[in-house]
Inverse folding.
């Protein structure tokens, strides 16, 4: 929100009523909505998907009251299956978990609405949260350094992750907002442009901190991928700037680990 300055307003679908949100949209003449539809974490895979669907249904209903709106949807790379070395805009939708299924459902709800949608199938987002806590797989490892003094790698660590820094993602959103509204719905995979394995991340942090690495049970739903971001880069003139190394160092510096 801070990147938008006075031109952006926050919509709280969880706490505000439909009438309150509609009043906010009308008052600020909102024509573009960046829709997160972030589900509440749950051990029940079906609950994760259902939460995002309900939020999107509500948002569409409210948006219908003010006419056509341009939605920029933060979807997820988890709409795709394993088995593809590189994900691109033509990779089929076949999610492996409830979170991915929920995102596919959200995409379909927006496709079937009267509103234009630009969907960003975002990979693993890194960076420091507003609460000062490092996020993503890097944040998990950094918190292990701080709390356990040991790095715990799920499985053999061979799963590939394409990491994108939240700052680069915000820059992309700003580029899309400034870009002309497309004539048709569009969906793109979005990442940092370079992938690495989970073990490579752990090894880098181990080298910087001196923490040992141990291996634990593999994740139940582990998506391994590299991402072709050339289409979205070409469309809006965007290029991610954060390297994987600098993402890790940012989080380590927060805890005095370097």
């Amino acid at each position: 929100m801070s990147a938008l300055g006075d031109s952006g307003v926050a919509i709280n679908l969880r706490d505000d009523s439909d009438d309150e949100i509609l009043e906010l949209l009308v008052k600020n003449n909102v024509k573009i909505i960046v829709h997160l539809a972030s589900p509440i974490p749950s051990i029940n895979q079906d609950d994760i998907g259902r939460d995002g669907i309900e939020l999107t249904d509500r948002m569409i209903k409210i948006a219908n009251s003010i006419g056509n709106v341009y939605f920029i949807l933060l979807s997820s790379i988890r709409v795709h299956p394993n088995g593809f070395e590189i994900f691109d805009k033509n990779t089929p939708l076949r999610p492996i978990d409830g979170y991915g299924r929920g995102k596919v459902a959200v995409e379909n709800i927006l496709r079937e609405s009267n509103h234009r949608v630009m969907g960003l199938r975002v990979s693993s987002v890194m960076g420091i949260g507003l609460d000062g806590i490092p996020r993503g797989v890097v944040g998990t490892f950094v918190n292990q350094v701080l709390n356990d003094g040991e790095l715990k790698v799920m499985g053999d660590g061979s799963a590939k992750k394409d990491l994108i820094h939240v700052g680069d993602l915000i820059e992309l959103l700003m580029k899309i907002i400034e870009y002309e509204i497309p004539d048709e719905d569009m969906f793109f995979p979005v990442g940092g442009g370079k992938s690495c394995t989970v073990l490579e991340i752990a090894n880098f942090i181990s080298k910087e901190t001196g923490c040992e690495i141990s291996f634990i049970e593999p994740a139940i739903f582990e998506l391994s991928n590299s991402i072709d971001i050339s289409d979205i880069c070409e469309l809006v003139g965007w290029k991610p700037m954060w390297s994987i190394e600098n993402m890790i160092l940012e989080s380590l510096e927060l805890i005095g680990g370097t």
